Amino acid sequence: MSEPVHTLTTMPTERRPGCPFDPPPELADARRHSPISRFTFANGKPGWVVTGYDLVRSVLADTRFSSRKEFMRHHPTIDYGDIQVPPAPPGEFLLMDEPQHGRYRKPLVGKFTVRRMRQLAERVERITADRLDAMEQAGPPTDLVTAFAKPIPAIVICELLGVPYEDRDFFQDRIDTFLGGEVSDEVLTEAYTGVQAYLAELVAAKRANPTDDILSDLTDGDLTDEELKGMALILLTAGFDTTANMLALGTFALLENPAQLAALRADPGLVDGAVEELLRYLSVGAKFYRTALEDVELGGVTIGAGDPIVLSLSTANRDPEHFPEPDALDLRRRNGGHLAFSHGIHQCLGQQLARVELRVALPALFDRFPTLRLAVPADEVEVRPEAADIHGVKSLPVTWDV
Amino acid sequence: MRIGVDRSRCIGAGMCALTAPEVFDQDTGDGRVLTLDAAPEGAAAEAARRAVGLCPSGALSEVPPTRENRDRT
Q1: Residues A3-34: pLDDT tens digits?
Q2: Can you give the residue ranges of the 4Fe-4S ferredoxin-type domain (chain B) (predicted)?
Q3: B18, A344: Cβ pair inside 8 Å?
Q4: ipTM score of the complex?
Q5: Correct CATH for A22-396 of 2.40.40.20, 1.10.630.10, 3.50.50.60, 3.40.50.1470
């Protein structure tokens, strides 16, 4: 007789107050019961939540679990009824399976290699120094999100793609709107279509007058303007928001763990490992979704064809079976394999860029402002709701001695 | 150790070049894995094993040392 499968009754909508870095306790509890739990989605559809490291990793690597947008008809917390969802627009390869996904990813891969991204380090140092200069000139206190965390990755990805400097604020605003998880569907659609229209014009401009950037390079192949627009959207949103949240939340986490911060300051050689540990500990891409294409035996249960699945990367990255003392931020931690960039064919295309940005910007911030500290009590720092695709802080008020 | 590479599965995430730079690189054109040393030893072999374990797409494998298994990837 097998044990009854654990059931998660409610998907948490927020984190425990005072614990902005930890996954919601309900999901951590679910993982303590078993690495996979039954969960009924908001529209009544039975599905699953995978919370354990090994199972999350194996689902991400298994092509029997689809990323296709048209299957994502069930939301964990919002009842959209029995809606139909159209397939992902051309080029938006995050929500596609092979072979469509590969058509878009392949031409990009060579542009985000370890070597190419390392060559960007100097440029990232310059961009970072400019932001730090601006912070210093304006003086404390400041919101680290708007002064530092957002502009650095925004400038970098815009330069890589070839988005003109003067258009960056436009992007920032709209992308904040549709990734923030806090606006009505109407506002969200407006922001999304605004970006779409802009990118359509940008692609046409690059095709007419190619410049030295990724988007112009891509106009050389067999990709249509529609496809290029979709790819640019994915790159911009991924490039803007994830690293920005890692920078802000990473700073917050280091300020809240002064012994770890002191260790990093004392030994700059720690920075590569520190960045990996912050990626694991913070898991800003907290939840991913998949749909089973066929019946699959997994972790002692049978997942039915068509079942929706929530993959909780944040609890997988805190799984004590894989990471000893998982809830401690330990910059000297050696065992790798965190899932912060996902796993399988969708593993983050821009991860080497993100690493360079984090390795450069975080130490530079603490070097420039040795007395950097929160300007408000830690429990007053507002975090995004769990409905946001990417976890982060809304703002991070900081100050320093002058 | 001997490394097995299936470039057709490679998604160019760069985990191998990051983890075991003496053993793996990425093609400057298509970004996919290049093997610099198909039979690493010592510390390089350790790093290569980690890279095999981290490979997101299953493009890398450790080939068992017997001759008849060598083509199994």
Answers
A1: 678 999 999 999 999 999 999 999 999 999 99
A2: 1-29
A3: no
A4: 0.89
A5: 1.10.630.10
